[in-house]
Write a structure and sequence with these properties.
Length: about 250
């Protein structure tokens, strides 16, 4: 495998399983020092062990991205151990509500927007002073095809994924001035715990050209491309990684 991230430090949120873990693994395999995090210590410990089996250089930190002190601690621990941040991947999202959009309560609505949108922006803002010190640094946000074409059964979550596409575009010029590229991935149905309802019993392929679910390592390969210098003239963009599923032209 190519080593596009030698001497790079990558911080990936929500990375003890699923897409975030695969991104950490991929960037690590390509030479990055990786910082992984999630809310539960046991999951952090297990994920670090898995990465260390492959001799990957990594640090695990417990962090709830919705908590300001946790975000600050995550960045501090990264700087303490590795001395900088080259790549920030904002991957966390929650979805506490399934069903009719009008049955959601205010607490669930706030949770979705606090975690999926607000904490994504705040973590990027907190990391900018460190990212701007590095050469060829990158921010990557994980949205969803639901951000383009809302799914009825997870409508509030879908709505929360649209601003991430706008945020990527909106932050592009300010990031470019600092030498930072910012991009986004909109995955389709990827086989993880989060999306079990879409693939467990009867897989829902919607209009997916490839008539199959995607896998975390396929999103991770897209993430590695966007964060590498192979994508050196790409910023403010969202790449759909969805096997051709209906999203946009
Ligand atoms: N899977 C799909 O089909 C699909 C499709 C489109 C987009 N996406 C997007 O891809 C991203 C990852 O999804 P996934 O399917 O990989 O999810 P997943 O398998 O459920 O993994 C979620 C990860 O995030 C952590 N996490 C959850 N809440 C957190 C918080 N508040 N602070 C820190 N860490 C937190 C979890 O660990 P803890 O429980 O220990 O916190 C876990 O490591 C999300 O943004 C999702 O919207 C997924």
């Amino acid at each position: 495998m190519e080593k596009r991230f030698l001497n790079k430090i990558a911080l990936i949120t929500g990375s003890t399983e699923g897409i975030g873990f695969s991104i950490a693994q991929r960037l690590g395999r390509e030479g990055a020092k990786v910082v992984i995090c999630s809310r539960k210590q046991e999951k952090v410990t297990k994920a670090v062990e898995q990465l260390k089996v492959e001799n990957l250089d990594c640090l695990g930190v417990v962090c709830h991205v919705g908590i300001e002190d946790d975000r600050r601690n995550l960045i501090e621990k990264t700087i303490e151990k590795y001395g900088g941040i080259d790549i920030l991947v904002c991957n966390v999202a929650v979805n506490p509500h399934h069903g009719n959009i009008f049955e959601i309560d205010e607490r669930q609505w706030d949770k979705i927007f606090d975690i999926n949108v607000k904490s994504t922006f705040l973590l990027i803002k907190q990391a900018i002073p460190f990212l701007k010190q590095r050469k060829d640094s990158n921010v990557l946000i994980i949205s969803s095809i639901a951000g383009y074409y809302p799914s009825q059964i997870i409508a509030p979550y879908s709505i929360s994924k649209t601003p991430l596409i706008g945020m990527t575009k909106a932050m592009g010029p300010a990031c470019a001035e600092l030498g930072i590229r910012v991009n986004c991935i909109a995955p389709g149905v990827i086989k993880t715990k989060f999306s079990k309802a879409f693939w467990y019993d009867e897989p829902i392929y919607n209009d997916c050209f490839m008539k199959r679910v995607g896998y975390s390592d396929e999103v991770a390969a897209t993430a590695a491309f966007l964060c590498s210098n192979d994508a050196s003239y790409i910023t403010g963009e969202t790449i759909i990684c969805a096997g051709g599923a209906n999203a946009r032209l």
